[in-house]
Amino acid sequence: MEKLTLIQALISVAAGGLVMLFTRVLPFVVFSKKNPPKIIRFTEKYIPAVIMGILLIYCFKDVEFREWPFGAPYFIAAAFCAFVHLTVKNSMVSIIGSTILFIVLSRLM
Question: Rounded to whole angstroms, how far apart are CA atoms 86 and 99?
């Protein structure tokens, strides 16, 4: 495998930067003057809940219900995360707190 020359590396970085800038700026340019289309409003309304459901399924996919501790660390940490998020209303506190709780419970159980 050949190494890139300095010029090739600079061109690659510049092209990547331009693509990144274009993808970040494009939605603001397209939707800045008018109301967004119906599909965009639908997406921004329902996609966060769908993504949370997918993440829950992903998080619980490896739970073993037939062996000790029967998934207890997973469920306790998830309940703690929901409780903290509903009371404190801070995503980072609930995510970090429940992650720490899960790690401690999974090592103790």
Answer: 16
